[in-house]
Structure formats: structure tokens, C-alpha cells
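Obj: model holo form, ligand = iron/sulfur cluster.
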Amino acid sequence: MGRRRFYGGVHPEYNKDHTRELGIEEMPLPEKLVVYFTQNLGAPPRPVVEKGDEVKKGQVIAEPGGFVSAPVHAPTSGKIKSIDLYPHPVGTDMPAAVIIPDGADEWVEGCNAERDITDLDGDKIKNLIQGGGLVGMGGASFPTHVKLSPPGDKKIDLLILNGAECEPYLTADHRLMLEKPEEILEGASLFARVLGVQKVIVAIERNKPDAIEVMRKKCIEHGGFSVAALDVVYPQGAEKQLIFALTKRRVPAGGLPMDVSVLVQNVGTAFAAYEAVRYARPLVKRVVTVTGRGIVHPKNVLARVGTSFEDLVGFCGGMKDETGKVINGGPMMGVAQYSLDASVTKGTSGVVFLVRDEIPQFISDACIRCGRCLDACPMRLNPSVLSVFIERMHFDEAEEYNVLDCIECGCCAYVCPSRRPLVHHFRRAKAEIRKRPKKTG
Ligand code: SF4
Ligand code: SF4
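Output (holo C-alpha cells):
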């Protein structure tokens, strides 16, 4: 069998030992939940509650703002104390509802009811997924029902269930595969039914041999399902890299997986789909890996959406004095936090606490043209040249050199001996280019 990997990539310290052996622990209901109205890529949802309203668990508190949008639900029953701007894990303040739980944790009528899914057709399944507020739970937060709606001329022949979890430190997907394998595969079956796909591959890196074994056993019961063991190299879980590693199909620049007849869904999203379709439970909880040398008791936590990072820290025994950096997500692609006031969203796969001596210092030295970033870039970009263009505000040239194809994986910055803040440059350039009016003619 050929190597299951892609061009470029890096081998960071994986540091998954903090939590890989720890079972998922459900966190008790916090005293307060801060639920952002925007938790998806695409159109922001519209709030439908006001200060003082009583809500039930699973009740819609924000309706979709368009097709590329997902409703937001109350994660418990209680009262809306306020609606205000709150620090969001992506780094800006965003409107959120502050819910004070009443302790009853009472579902709204119609939710948490088992249904027979045997004869559900694809459209009905997709509607239930849409109503459940599902978004990609690997971090992208793209509405799941949209991904399940490729245009008629894009026939999908392969569904990849992404269990690579290549980000250092994170073990949420790993634990879910060990503890809920049947539910994940049932969720994948629902996706396959919507797409009319027969072939499903569960993709897992070889550093999770126990998950590979468990999923292989379960796949035997699902005809057409198989497990692919992948080389351990970051960013193996990035969609385009994953598709190439498994199929040698190359998604074109600016294209999507559907352009090569593939659809990729995260294992956590598959689990959430099963919960939404089988039990009418919208997405109001998720597994979050709370980890790193800076946290007293690292854990895989089943937390409500809206749980503050401060409450997660409290549940995990507190933060150590030597903690120097808190990251939403993993250290390669995650976003540094300036406060513990941010809260868990549908896309929060982990919160990592690094101690001071682990933090790379960006000293912004000049590029020494060593070329290491070119070898590491899985998108075959030229990070060295791009960063120089962007430092000089030459955004047109950066666009010509395909900065929009950058997946912000951080491989270039990881290998750069000058510790240049490359990803920061690329995010800035992409934002600048997307702000501009589209060129015509
Ligand atoms: S240029 Fe973008 S895609 Fe390439 S290594 Fe750097 S962050 Fe990753
Ligand atoms: S790795 Fe850093 S120093 Fe080396 S070429 Fe790339 S940007 Fe320049």
C-alpha cells in the first residue's frame, strides 16, 4: 500500500498524552451560560429572544440568517439575564445571550424524543440536521446541511469521515471514536443516505491504534464502510490534504472537495447528526479537550455550548501560575485568548494552556531565504515571498501568488528559524483581499 500522506507538512510534538487515556467527563451545569448568536461560517443568525425571556433546553434562540446559516438553541432551561457583546474565542466581541439556568434542565416540547429513522429519506434527514443547528465540529463551523447540498452537477461518490485529529494536544475526537463508535457510524450512514453514497472511509492517524481497532470492528457491521490508517503528519486532517492522501485526487485551487466528488465530515459532526436525527437533540453540548501543562487536571470535557473558559478551568482544577498562553483550539491553528470570559461554541474542540517556556517568541527577524517554509507548506505556496509582499502592503501580488489558498495551518511559521509571524500576515492579507470589491471583466 502507498504512503497515505501529502506534500509538505511538519511533525510537531503531539502532546496528546495529557488526555488520550482519559474518558469523557460530563461537566455539571454552570451557574451561567453565554451563548453567542453567531456560531457558524456564513450568514449570522437572527436573535429571537429578549432579556427576561424564559427558555427551555433546545429552544431556538436565534434563527438562521439565510441558507448558509444555522439556528442556535438554548443549552438548558432558564432565564435570559441579558443580551450583550461578549468576548468570542475568535478574538472579537460578539452578541450573546446570557442564560441563568433554572436547574430543571427541561427540554422544549418536541426535543429529546426518539424517532424511528429506518425509512427517513435524504431530504427529511437533511431538514432535521439543519433544524438541529449542526455545523462542522472540527473547527470550521460551516453549516452541515449546506455541505450536504452539493449542486446537481457535483455527484459525490465518497464520504470521508475525518477522525485524523492531527492538531497537537487535542483528543476530543479520539475519545469520541472510542466511546461512541456506533453512534458515529450511524451518523455517517445518515450522511451517506442524504448523498446517495455507498462508500465511506473513516480516516484516522496511526497514533490512535485503539480507535482504529474499535472503528474497524464496528465498520464490519456497516457494508461499504472501512477504516484508513494515515501517516502521522500535520496537517493530515485538513480536507484537501486528507482527500489527496486517501484518493490521490487533487482539489483544484479555489475549489472544494465536491469538485473531486468527495465530501468530508468530522466524526464529532457525525455523532451530532445521529443525536439530532434519532433523538431530536439539537447541538447544545460537545466534547472539549481542556489540556496542557498549564492546567491542573487536563480532561476531555462534555460541556454545554456557552460554558465559559473560566468555568472549564474551574472544572479542571484551576490554572497553574506558570501559564503563559491560553489557546482556543490547538497550538498550530488555534487563536490565543486575552481573557477567560470567552465561551464554548459549537466549534470549540479544545482549550490549551501552555506554560511560559513552551511559547515560541515571534521576533520578526528578516527572512534568511532558507526555504524551509516552502518545503513545509502543504499547499505548495511560497510563504517567504508572500510575507514580504504583505509586509509591503502589496496585496495584489500576494493574491497573484495564491495567498487565498493558504489554509492557515501554521507549518511555515513552525519551521521558520527567524520566527516570522507568517500566519498573521496571511490572515491579514486574506481579510484585505476579501474586503475589496470583486474585479470584473
Ligand atoms: S502558507 Fe498557509 S498553507 Fe502554507 S504552510 Fe503557511 S499557513 Fe500553511
Ligand atoms: S522559513 Fe522563514 S526565514 Fe526561511 S525562507 Fe521561510 S520565511 Fe524566510
